[in-house]
Amino acid sequence: MSSIARKLRRENKTVGFVPTMGALHEGHLSLIAEARQMSDVVIVSIFVNPTQFNEKEDFTKYPRDLTADAALLTDYQVDYVFAPEAQEIYGENFSTYVYVENLTETLEGAARPGHFRGVSTVVTILFNTIRPDFAFFGQKDAQQVAVIKRLTRDLGFETEIVVLPTIREESGLAMSSRNTLLSPDERQGASIIYQGLRDAKIAFREGERNALKLADIVRQKIETEPFARIDYVAVVDSETLAPVDKIGDAQVLIAVAARFGLVRLIDNIIINRKQ
Ligand code: AMP
Fold first, then answer.
1. Is the Cβ atom of 122 under 6 angstroms away from ligand 1?
2. Domains identified in the chain, total number
3. Which of 73, 201, 209, 224 lies 20 to 30 angstroms, CA to CA, from 128?
4. Are 16 and 146 found together in one domain?
């Protein structure tokens, strides 16, 4: 991958990079389609990164299907699929990790110790290997977006981070590789997350500016679903992830994590004055 990337730089090709953990769905494909629009060469990585899993079982159960993924990608004119083995990324005696302060201590960072250290480290290794002009990420993982933007600025990567909207199933459930692990009932029930977020957005449009009240609207809706176990509902600044009391001019994120059976799902919406 390094030598291909070097060759592409020599040829002055712009490189668009889409990092994924595979089990590809339309959310991933929307990133790939945009990468295709914006870049001469599209590189997709498929790597279930062991260091970002804080639960061993989550890692072993994570869906993997490289054959189906490769077949899906044939329609998308992807130039390279980079699917390394863990030993290629983390060589013997690997000891260097990237840790983004502050932003990684709340929400997913608090619930999943070590998760963002794994994400930041692998993204740094992939960015160093590929040196993309553009890298594409989904808004579904809003905290990941904030962390990657921070690390890109702090470490001086010359990669532009492009963030694209969350793609949803018809029910409103955010697409996720983990959705395949839900039972049919759980999957149906999981659409309650987006219903809660949508209720909050409607209340915001109608003038509600109190963050606690908006969070309560989301929480109360999700609690009507017997399968759901809420982990958190948070109203935070979308860039700093600091909790917000009253919605003002800054862009705000309402973020949710909830379990359905053994599967933990996250979702969020952005609200701002213009809506
Ligand atoms: P993953 O394979 O889950 O690590 O995701 C790879 C990339 O796809 C990340 O940037 C995710 O934010 C993005 N992604 C995952 N699900 C969605 C979705 N439903 N809509 C848009 N982007 C997504």
1. no
2. 2
3. 73
4. yes
